[in-house]
Each structure stands twice: as structure tokens, then as C-alpha cells.
């Protein structure tokens, strides 16, 4: 609990007792079902840092965009979608995941947490035809031409891709591959509390 609270304070994220309880309930759900579904390879404080705080490190930047409808692509165990949905209750989140097994976990978690703003989409991202204000993903795939075209097709006219990424050098290499597809890109450094690994947000239009 102290790592979570200290991390939220370090990220300058305001939180209510209800949000804190929901995050902790979500952590319990992931840990409970992790042996069955293979959701993450971490536990305890390491899990909180690498998955919860990393997911929530995008809160202030996303708040600046002011999206009403977000797609979390390749949501897996719900990162970053579920932590973000807890902190943006007014935003509609679509968690897109092709694995039926993981979708079963996501449905159960959303039901257990009582999240009314989350929709689980058991689908390949290529089969989604809706449009979104923001498309997020984390540990999904490198930015290559086919997947970038697919992700861009999910955006509405003013939409943006908001990707959780690691080393800047790797991001620059990926951008060189997809340069002809995008009209705007920005690399934003982010410090995830207690995490040594280099982290960035990649913004694309």
C-alpha cells in the first residue's frame, strides 16, 4: 500500500479513498487469477511499480487530451486500461483483447470492481471498426507499418495514439519505419516512481 500511495503522490495524482480501494481490489484480482491466466510476471511491490504505477503514469497527460472514448489495444490483464478507467470514471474505455482466456479475466475483474465505464471487446484489433478519441497500448507490439495503419484507422478526426514505450533510441528507430504514415509525433519522457527502466510516451497522429 505504501508504495502505491507514495507512487501516486510522486506522480502528482489526486486520488479518493474509493479509487485507492478499487486499485487495491484490482491488484488482489490480478494476483488471485495470475496462476490460472498468466497475466503478469511480477508480484508484490514489483508488480505495483511495473504495472500499476506505470499504467497510471499517463494520467496527467491523458487528462490534458480530454478524451471521452478510449481504446486500450492488446489489453491483456487490463493494463493500462483498468487502472486508467478507475481514475477516469467519466471516460468510456474499450479494452480490446483477442485472447478469450484473458477476456474472461477482464470481464470478471470489471464486474467485481463495478466499473460501469469499461467495455470488454474480445476481438483482434484489425476487426474493430469504431473510432476513438485516444488509442492506448502498452507492451503490445513494435510500431511497424501494418499495425500502425490499423491503429491510425481507429482514430476519429482529432484522435491520437498514446503508446507506453521504453527506450528513446528504440522509439526513434520505430518512427523511422512509420514516418510516411504519420502527420505528428512526440516523445515524452516519464519517470515512473521506483522504476529504474527508461520510460516514454509516444504520441502519434
UniProtKB/TrEMBL annotation:
<feature type="binding site">
    <location>
        <begin position="125"/>
        <end position="126"/>
    </location>
    <ligand>
        <name>S-adenosyl-L-methionine</name>
    </ligand>
</feature>
<keyword id="KW-0808">Transferase</keyword>
<comment type="function">
    <text>Specifically methylates the N7 position of a guanine in 16S rRNA.</text>
</comment>
<protein>
    <recommendedName>
        <fullName>Ribosomal RNA small subunit methyltransferase G</fullName>
        <ecNumber>2.1.1.-</ecNumber>
    </recommendedName>
</protein>
<feature type="binding site">
    <location>
        <position position="79"/>
    </location>
    <ligand>
        <name>S-adenosyl-L-methionine</name>
    </ligand>
</feature>
<feature type="binding site">
    <location>
        <position position="138"/>
    </location>
    <ligand>
        <name>S-adenosyl-L-methionine</name>
    </ligand>
</feature>
<dbReference type="InterPro" id="IPR029063">
    <property type="entry name" value="SAM-dependent_MTases_sf"/>
</dbReference>
<comment type="similarity">
    <text>Belongs to the methyltransferase superfamily. RNA methyltransferase RsmG family.</text>
</comment>
<feature type="binding site">
    <location>
        <begin position="97"/>
        <end position="99"/>
    </location>
    <ligand>
        <name>S-adenosyl-L-methionine</name>
    </ligand>
</feature>
<feature type="binding site">
    <location>
        <position position="74"/>
    </location>
    <ligand>
        <name>S-adenosyl-L-methionine</name>
    </ligand>
</feature>
<dbReference type="GO" id="GO:0005829">
    <property type="term" value="C:cytosol"/>
</dbReference>
<keyword id="KW-0949">S-adenosyl-L-methionine</keyword>
<dbReference type="GO" id="GO:0070043">
    <property type="term" value="F:rRNA (guanine-N7-)-methyltransferase activity"/>
</dbReference>
<keyword id="KW-0489">Methyltransferase</keyword>
<dbReference type="InterPro" id="IPR003682">
    <property type="entry name" value="rRNA_ssu_MeTfrase_G"/>
</dbReference>
<keyword id="KW-0963">Cytoplasm</keyword>
<keyword id="KW-0698">rRNA processing</keyword>
<dbReference type="Pfam" id="PF02527">
    <property type="entry name" value="GidB"/>
</dbReference>
Amino acid at each position: 500500500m505504501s508504495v502505491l500511495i507514495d507512487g501516486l503522490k510522486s506522480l502528482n495524482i489526486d486520488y479518493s479513498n474509493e479509487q485507492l480501494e478499487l486499485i487495491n481490489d484490482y491488484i488482489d484480482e490480478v494476483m488471485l487469477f495470475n496462476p490460472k491466466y498468466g497475466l503478469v510476471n511480477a508480484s508484490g511491490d514489483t508488480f505495483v511499480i511495473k504495472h500499476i504505477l506505470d499504467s497510471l503514469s499517463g494520467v496527467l497527460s491523458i487528462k490534458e487530451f480530454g478524451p471521452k472514448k478510449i481504446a486500450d489495444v492488446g489489453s491483456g490483464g487490463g493494463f493500462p486500461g483498468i487502472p486508467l478507467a478507475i481514475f477516469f470514471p467519466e471516460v468510456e474505455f474499450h479494452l480490446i483483447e483477442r485472447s478469450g482466456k484473458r477476456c474472461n479475466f477482464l470481464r470478471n475483474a470489471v464486474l467485481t470492481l463495478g466499473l460501469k465505464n469499461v467495455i470488454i471487446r474480445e476481438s483482434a484489433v484489425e476487426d474493430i471498426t469504431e473510432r476513438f478519441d485516444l488509442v492506448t497500448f502498452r507492451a503490445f507490439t513494435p510500431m511497424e507499418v501494418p499495425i500502425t495503419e490499423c491503429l491510425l484507422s481507429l482514430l476519429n478526426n482529432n484522435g491520437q495514439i498514446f503508446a507506453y514505450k521504453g527506450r528513446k533510441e528504440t522509439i526513434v528507430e520505430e518512427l523511422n519505419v512509420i514516418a510516411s504514415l504519420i502527420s505528428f509525433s512526440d516523445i515524452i519522457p516519464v519517470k515512473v516512481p521506483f522504476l529504474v527502466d527508461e520510460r516514454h510516451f509516444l504520441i502519434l497522429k
